[in-house]
Design goal:
- The protein is an alpha/beta fold.
- Helices cover 39% and strands 19% of the residues.
- It is built from nine helices and eight strands.
- An eight-stranded parallel β-sheet has the order 7-6-5-4-3-2-1-8.
- The longest helix has 20 residues.
- The chain is globular.
- Bound molecules: pyridoxal-5'-phosphate.
- Pyridoxal-5'-phosphate binds next to strand 8.
C-alpha cells in the first residue's frame, strides 16, 4: 500500500469543516512517502519513536512541524528537544520537568499536551481525569518556564462500539472544557485516529492523528 492522496484531500476538507488540524502519522513509513504528502503542502507530521523521528528529521525539509505522539522516555527528551514542535504524550510531572530542562538548554519553549487515560485498556498511558485536574489546579505547571502546556491528548479504547467511544471522548472534552473555564488557556484537544476520528470530531476534537488512512497499513518495524 502507498500514499493515498485522494483520501488525504477528502480528509482535509472534512477536518476544515470541523476546524480541526491533521497530524499525519508517518511512523514506519519511508521518507519518500512523507515527501509525497509534504509536496501537497502539508507540514504537520507525527512520529512515535525517537530514533526514527530523528533520522527522518535530519533528511527531510526543515519547515516540517514534527509532533511526538508516542510514549516518551525521560532519557530520550534531549534528542528531540532541539527541534520538536509538539509533544502529545506527557504523562508525568517528571517527564515535564525533563522537557523543561532540555527546552531551556536549547533556548526554546516546547509545546506539550497532557495525556489523559480515557480508555478501558490498562496499557494506555496517561493521567487519570482527577490527576490531570489536580496537576493544573496545584499551580505546579508554572514552575516549568520552558514548556507550554497547551492542551490534552487521549486515546480511546480499541473498539468499534460507538457508544463506548463517545463516552470516552466526551470525558476528555469535559475535562478540556472544565480547565478552560478556569482560564488555563488550552487550545488543543488531540483525539481521534483513522478508526475513530469522526466520532472524536463530533466530541469536539480539534486535532486528529491519522496514519493508515493516508499512508496505508503500517509497515513492519
Ligand atoms: C499510530 C498512532 C496513531 C495513528 O493511527 P492510525 O490508526 O494509523 O490512524 C495515532 N495516535 C497515536 C498515539 C499512534 O500511536
Amino acid at each position: 500500500m502507498s500514499v493515498d492522496l485522494i483520501s488525504l484531500t477528502q480528509l482535509k476538507t472534512e477536518l476544515a469543516n470541523h476546524h480541526a488540524k491533521l497530524v499525519a502519522v508517518s511512523k514506519t513509513k519511508p521518507v519518500t512517502d512523507i515527501l509525497k504528502v509534504y509536496e501537497t503542502g502539508h507540514k504537520l507530521f507525527g512520529e512515535n519513536y525517537v530514533q526514527e523521528l530523528t533520522d527522518k528529521y535530519k533528511v527531510l525539509p526543515k519547515d516540517i512541524e514534527w509532533n511526538f505522539i508516542g510514549h516518551l522516555q525521560s532519557n530520550k527528551v534531549k534528542i528531540i528537544a532541539p527541534f520538536i514542535s509538539l509533544i502529545h504524550g506527557v504523562d508525568s510531572l517528571n517527564l515535564l520537568k525533563e522537557i523543561d530542562k532540555h527546552a531551556l538548554k536549547n533556548n526554546r519553549v516546547i509545546n506539550c499536551l497532557m495525556q489523559v487515560h480515557i480508555a478501558e485498556e490498562e496499557s494506555k498511558f496517561g493521567f487519570s481525569f482527577d490527576e490531570c485536574l489536580q496537576v493544573f489546579n496545584s499551580g505546579e505547571l508554572k514552575n516549568f518556564k520552558n514548556v507550554n502546556v497547551c492542551g490534552l491528548m487521549g486515546m480511546a479504547t480499541f473498539t468499534d462500539d460507538t457508544f463506548q467511544l463517545k463516552k470516552e471522548f466526551h470525558t476528555l472534552q469535559n475535562l478540556y472544557t472544565q480547565l478552560n473555564t478556569k482560564q488555563y488557556g488550552l487550545t488543543i484537544l488531540s483525539m481521534g485516529m483513522t478508526s475513530d476520528y469522526k466520532i472524536a470530531l463530533e466530541c469536539g476534537s480539534n486535532m486528529v492523528r491519522i496514519g493508515s488512512a493516508i499512508f496505508g497499513e503500517r509497515n513492519k518495524q
